[in-house]
Amino acid sequence: MKLDAKIPSGPLESKWEHHKFDLKLVSPANKRKFEIIVVGSGLAGGSAAATLAELGYNVKCFCFQDSPRRAHSIAAQGGINAAKNYRGDGDSIYRLFYDTIKGGDFRSREANVYRLAEVSGHIIDQCVAQGVPFAREYGGLLDNRSFGGAQVARTFYARGQTGQQLLLGAYSALSRQIGAGQVKMFPKTEMLDLVLVDGKARGIVVRDLVTGAMESHAADAVILATGGYGNVFYLSTNAKGSNVTASYRAYKRGAAFGNPCFTQIHPTCIPVKGDYQSKLTLMSESLRNDGRVWVPKTKADKRAPGDIPESERDYYLERKYPSFGNLAPRDIASRSAKEACDSGQGVGESGFGVYLDFADSISRHGEEQIRARYGNLFDMYERITDENPYKMPMRIYPAVHYTMGGLWVDYNLMSNIPGLHVLGEANFSDHGANRLGASALMQGLADGYFVIPYTIANYLASSKLEKVTTSHESFKAAEDSCRKRVGQLLSIKGSRTVDSFHRELGKIMWDKCGMARDRAGLQEALKAIPKLREEFWQDLKILGTNEEINQSLEKAGRVADFLEFGELMCLDAIAREESCGGHFRTEHQTPDGEALRNDENFCHVAVWEHEGDATGPAKGHKRHQEELVYEHVKLATRSYK
Amino acid sequence: MKLKLHVWRQKNKAAQGRMVTYDADNISPNMSFLEMLDVVNEGLITTGEDPIAFAHDCREGICGSCGVMVNGVAHGPQDATTTCQLHMRSFQDGEELYIEPWRAKGFPVLRDLVVDRSAFDRIIQAGGFVSVNTGSAQDANATPIRKSDADEAFNAAACIGCGACVAACKNASAMLFVSAKVGQLSLLPQGQPERQERALNMVSAMHEEGFGNCTNQYECEAVCPKQISTDYIARLNREFIKATLTYPDAKK
């Protein structure tokens, strides 16, 4: 497998600027001759589809939701980072770059991250111009808050609904292009396969989720912006429909997958309650601006939080990481919570919870001020738990939230398959082994608004693209294999529901490939997953047919892919003999329990290649490496103490 | 908890629907309403009956996918709450619940509790945007915006497009939905250049999609999970009338 990251030469600060000049252009008159497929309509896909259409390309955009406005980017709460330095508190492009590299525990590409920091400011400009109602100060200028892993306030926000407001901004731009006829939108349509012609990505096969019809679409380039795969754990903060299918189908067609085991476990979610639970709800990281995290010093302390005096509380983040305190990065805050609970200091019925306490902030700023900042989050917490967080501390516990791993892309956001581009959470490139808070929105929009419009032109202008239609045999073959697979799922007629398999897979993944991993556990998972997969294909029960709205069938296709993909994650986790960011191998830790990197052997991206036929089961997965070269940042032990 | 459910079952858009009764046993008060339906569905699949189709995705009250009528009230009995955030502790043990899809000409039923809300997308496509191409924006702080205007714009922008306003209205009016977008953008300097055309085009699209007009019943505001105020409808009427003075031919 040839992996060329195509990082431009020259000084870091001018790489992107020079690269933009070197990239070939498509003239305005020629743009209308090209068709581009965008799969996914979240921040990355929505912004890319809208921008490419504005430029004059013909765009087809697909999403499985009933409207592009419902993509899961909408649920992002806290904010979006940008190196505007409006506070005058010492922020700069270089500082945002450095914080992101360090936050990712030195496992991301310098050039990509620098570009991300460089375009971050334009994102805010663009969104304000669209009418995104960011929070403002009384003077009418934009407000900022702080997020984990940073000592400056660079996070722009719209109450606790920043993702919603940014997505509605991108959706409005997309809607304008749909209305103008420049984008053809396909909601309630799920991508089932990627189609290659002469080694290039030339289209996709989709299923209409209302009628069940399988259809092919051909194009000159394909963009996947299909989000993350956190739902492999069943319980996560992802939307129920979020899935790995588009990425995994591309992987089986030859696209390389980068760092699949890099998962972000978010420290502040509402704890699990009951076996029926269908998803976990995030409480924004922004709450750690005003909330203090603590557990009782005594083990199994059953007193109400209000009855535990100050002297008997352990504010463990403030104690262990005095310079960042409650705003330690996510991986560190999550691991500390797990440690506290594993040692018996956890709170709540299950013992898997820690307090996030607002009492100090409420007495300092008043309840009204806190309500103005986080009102919707406090209400959401009360609705779910039936407890009033203004009166008693929230109980929180870590939960799967984001996946840093994803399809491998070069500097141009193109995968190793020519013509296949991957944006947003679906690619692997910018967050290393841990993503900092408020950086997902930044990356999704940077990729869609400010990177892909330049780099895709270069691909289109420099490739010789023969005219291809869906009557090409590759499309017919891919369609047939999709039909066959659906037929197989429906014909099993076993006894177990899709959800029961998904829950079981999730439990294996959480126990063995979750917040802490070790060789023995991962080996167990590598035995358990194929066994479960075999049972799935023998004993699955789905009612109904393909030719109707069949939600069990939709889920089954996604779970079938998770059952293969989970194995790849475990293989990746077992091969990476070090701890870094969210990947914590218990065999590799410092004496005080921090992640211990192995830069000598693992300062690289693990890039996986599928072995075997695209339509059959995997014969194996082959590991390649892309070495990470640090020219500007010195590899250091990450310290937030 | 044990409950008796009467649920609207309809095979597809063309089929005749009807209410079917199910028992929901072993329900915990801590379950969300949709988790209760999950449990019922697992039971149905086991006994060989098609599970109840319902729309849902984020299950945290923001994507706007979910929404059913519970005992005739859009999103059920709790104020300012989407169906996914409604919890079973809002009901009594032994209660009977009537669960139905949104009913409106503009929202045809696709299956069971799932309706087609693409009409809302088409209304936005008619003018719910600021025409600004990527890359042409000035610095974000170049134009200060009064905080109270920004906050009021936000209150309208919080709309999740779930359609409860339409379902609750006896006229199946989409005025609250339309007014939220028109209101948001008319309050901000960025929305000024297209202000009048936006009001005209969105209202006209709303009519074309088969939604009715507002007759001041305020049912929409009462069920809106984001508590969007009917004040925005008053604002929309003002915007519309002003626009028709500029474009006298626009008023059909």
Structure description:
Chain A is an alpha+beta fold and 641 residues long. Chain A has a domain at 265-401: Succinate dehydrogenase/fumarate reductase flavoprotein, catalytic domain (Flavocytochrome C3, Chain A, domain 1, Alpha-Beta Complex). Chain A is 37% helix and 15% strand. Chain A has 17 helices and 19 strands. In chain A, strand 18 and strand 19 (620-627) form a beta hairpin. In chain A, helix 3 runs parallel beside helix 6, helix 5 crosses helix 12 (440-462) and helix 14 runs antiparallel to helix 15 (519-539). Chain A is globular, with a radius of gyration of 24 Å. Chain B has 252 residues and is of the alpha+beta class. Chain B has two domains: 3-110, Ubiquitin-like (UB roll); 118-246, Alpha-helical ferredoxin (Fumarate Reductase Iron-sulfur Protein, Chain B, domain 2). The longest helix of chain B has 16 residues, at 231-246. The N and C termini of chain B lie far apart (54 Å). Classes of the chains: A alpha+beta (641), B alpha+beta (252). The interface between A and B is large, with 84 and 77 residues.
Q: Which geometry of chain A do the CA atoms define?
A: globular
Main beta sheet of chain A, described? 5 strands, parallel
Radius of gyration of chain A, Cα only, in angstroms?
24 Å
- Low-pLDDT parts of chain A are none
Q: Fill in the CATH topology of the largest domain in chain B.
A: Fumarate Reductase Iron-sulfur Protein, Chain B, domain 2
Q: Structural class from helices and strands of chain A?
A: alpha+beta
Order of helices and strands of chain B: EEHEEEEEHHHHHHH
Q: CATH first level of the largest domain in chain B: which class?
A: Mainly Alpha
| Fraction of helical residues of chain A | 25-40%
What is the beta-strand fraction of chain B? 5-15%
Could you tell me how far the N terminus lies from the C terminus of chain B, measured between alpha carbons in angstroms? 54 Å
Mean pLDDT score of chain B? 97
Overall pLDDT level of chain A: 96
Task: State the share of residues found in helices of chain B, binned by percent.
Answer: 25-40%
Taken as a percent bin, the fraction of beta residues of chain A is 5-15%
The CATH homologous superfamily name of one domain in chain A equals Succinate dehydrogenase/fumarate reductase flavoprotein, catalytic domain
Count of beta strands of chain A:
19
